[in-house]
């Protein structure tokens, strides 16, 4: 069973969206539990999940499928989206705004009440099986004006915002995920809270829950707290030596 610690009403909301065959959009910074949540909900609903990490080279064929050449000539291979449509599974597109516009166009007829997927290459028009659900996520922090999702796309989705959990919740997550004791979990969450408050540094992203868990892993393997924090929490946040040193001051103050 996948462990997921809810932060609000997201479980009920996702379930209600699933019951009504509505697609879901999850916004939130990296490492705050979006992927874990989708995996957990898929388990709860008893549906398979196909996850695609989107990037700017992702083509519609990567999602829908392509003809391949085998020993007996060419044959068609479904992409993850098509598989999910046929099987009634969840298709989760992580960082969907990274994908090219022509890629997201195939999502439109699937995201409204038509629930269909035209496959140009084979001439098929697939009707999504009952359990099919489209779930997309994106990180508003990375979003450039150019790449932002179009309103016509966004308005098709039930949307939820994720953020770093409240300290008490995050402590439970860090403890359960890493197996560390509650005192260390609290210390790591305190550190993250302090780091997240630092606004004057040009950080692209704040320290995520994922980084806290990695730090606890390293400490469990015998690294000193300061070394573990540097390697798993501070260095991943910035390449700038001055910033790294400033963030390390926060670590020295707490460990
Ligand atoms: P995202 O998809 O938002 O980038 P993930 O879902 O991969 O982030 O979360 C990163 C890690 O943080 C997970 O592997 C998990 O260990 C932990 N995590 C974050 N939030 C939660 C949560 N609410 N419940 C359980 N684990 C969580």
Automatic annotation (TrEMBL):
Record SUPFAM superfamilies: P-loop containing nucleoside triphosphate hydrolases (SSF52540)
Keyword Metal-binding: no
Domain ATPase dynein-related AAA: 23-157
Family: Belongs to the CbbQ/NirQ/NorQ/GpvN family.
Source taxonomy: Bacteria, Pseudomonadati, Pseudomonadota, Gammaproteobacteria, Pseudomonadales
Domain of life per record: Bacteria
Record's keyword terms, sorted: ATP-binding, Nucleotide-binding
MF terms (GO), sorted A to Z: ATP binding; ATP hydrolysis activity
PANTHER family cross-referenced by the UniProt entry: DENITRIFICATION REGULATORY PROTEIN NIRQ, MOXR FAMILY PROTEIN
Domain called CbbQ/NirQ/NorQ C-terminal: residue spans: 170-253
Organism: Marinobacter litoralis
Protein's name in the database: Denitrification regulatory protein NirQ
């Amino acid at each position: 069973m996948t462990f997921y610690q809810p932060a609000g009403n997201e479980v009920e909301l996702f379930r209600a969206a699933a019951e009504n065959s509505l697609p879901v959009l999850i916004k939130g910074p990296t490492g705050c539990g979006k992927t874990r949540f989708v995996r957990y909900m898929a388990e709860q609903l008893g549906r398979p999940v196909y996850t695609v990490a989107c990037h700017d080279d992702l083509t519609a064929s990567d999602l829908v499928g392509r003809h391949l050449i085998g020993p007996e000539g060419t044959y068609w291979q479904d992409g993850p989206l098509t598989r999910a449509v046929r099987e009634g599974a969840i298709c989760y597109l992580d960082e969907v705004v990274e994908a090219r516009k022509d890629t997201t166009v195939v999502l439109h007829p699937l995201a409204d009440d038509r629930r269909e997927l035209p496959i140009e290459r084979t001439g098929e028009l697939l009707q999504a099986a009952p359990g099919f659900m489209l779930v997309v996520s994106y990180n508003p922090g990375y979003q450039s004006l150019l790449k932002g999702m179009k309103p016509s796309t966004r308005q098709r989705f039930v949307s939820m915002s994720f953020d770093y959990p409240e300290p008490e919740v995050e402590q439970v997550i860090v403890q359960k995920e890493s197996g560390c004791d509650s005192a260390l979990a609290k210390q790591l969450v305190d550190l993250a809270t302090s780091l997240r408050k630092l606004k004057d540094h040009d950080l692209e992203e704040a320290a995520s829950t994922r980084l806290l868990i990695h730090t606890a892993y390293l400490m469990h393997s015998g690294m000193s707290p300061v070394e573990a924090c540097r390697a798993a929490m501070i260095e991943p946040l910035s390449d700038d030596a001055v910033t790294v040193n400033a963030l390390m001051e926060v670590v020295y103050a707490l460990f």
